[in-house]
Amino acid sequence: MTTQDHSDGTVVTSYVEAPTNTVTAGGVNFVYRELGPKGGIPVVFFVHLAATLDYWDPRIVDAIAENRHVIAFDQRGVGASSGEVPDSIEAMADDAYAFIKALGHDTIDVFSFSLGGFIAQALIAKHPELVRKLVLTGTGPKGGKDIDKVAGITYYDILKATLTRSDPREFLFFNRDVKGKRAAKAYVERTTGARTEGRDAPMPLKGFRTQLKAIKKYGRGTPHDLSKLTQPTLIANGDNDRMVPSVLSEDMHRRIKGSELIIYPNSGHGGIFQFHQEFAPIAAEFLKR
User: Fold this and answer.
1) CA-to-CA distance for 168 and 1, rounded, in angstroms?
2) Is the pTM here over 0.70, yes or no?
3) Which of 224, 219, 252, 249 shows the shortest CA–CA distance to 237?
4) Average of pLDDT values for 173-185?
5) How confident is the model over 119-139, as a mean pLDDT?
6) Which positions fall inside the AB hydrolase-1 domain (predicted)?
7) Is the predicted pLDDT of residue 178 greater than 90, yes or no?
């Protein structure tokens, strides 16, 4: 069994220390980071709207990488990956497939958040044999109620964040009560303060707008038949998700046979980050099973 290691041979178990690599697939140079013990089926992380490699919460990644090979990557046109952001979720799923195949993997587990969950569902609809296990967090099904309204909420919260010189995720992902504000600050600190060297390139504004267009299309699209999903699936969200309504997590739970559902109280879109101490071991155990 080989390991994802530093030049001195030690296994990288901390996301903050994971080196950034590049692989070319379909004419795109995809940047990615991997950590944890190699060998077996990797867990591929699918990131959210406007996010790059630096946006993953190390508390969750590290918990899973303790005994699993973890891969996080930037989609086409995101961060330091080359090319232009595609204008459909399906095209993003095709890129993800090309990336996974370029790394030589025939079977993966998926950990997804928000937009990443849309892409993961589109990937499974086309390549059901590729994915063994699925984690869907802060996300919803194709054609889901109010997903097409994400752009409006996002622009409104970005404006509020700009006026208060805050990170937009503090408004988009967390409730604006005392606990929510505290959790928001801690989360932003974990994702922006920990890695000081070798940070990813920022998300280009044009690409961000294209992602929003793709989300709108997805929200108005014909739903996937989720009853066909045979993968063991873990679904999680906060009970007050303003971006991808929490009822959509319940909707997916009803439609995906045998799926498990966790709804965290008094929390928003970033419920899994607010409750990372509870959620990280549950996700790690689900993926280890």
Assistant:
1) 42
2) yes
3) 249
4) 97
5) 98
6) 43-273
7) yes
What Å distances lie between residue 256 and 70, 90, 98, 144, 232, CA to CA? 25, 20, 26, 14, 9
Q: How far apart are CA 174 and CA 283, in angstroms?
A: 20
Average pLDDT value for residue range 213-241: 97
- Report the sign of the C-alpha dihedral through residues 277, 50, 158, 251, in that order: negative
Check: CB of residue 178 under 8 Å from CB of residue 168.
Answer: no
Residue 263: Cβ within 10 Å count: 17
What are the angstrom distances between the C-alpha of 279 and each of 10, 89, 170, 178, 265? Answer: 27, 27, 19, 21, 13
Domain ranges of the chain: 15-288
234 closest CA partner among 70, 98, 120: 120
How long a stretch of residues is the chain?
A: 289
What class is the 15-288 domain? alpha beta
The confidence score (pLDDT) of residue 230 equals 96
Say whether pLDDT at 8 is over 70.
no
Answer whether 57's CB lies under 8 Å from 187's CB: yes
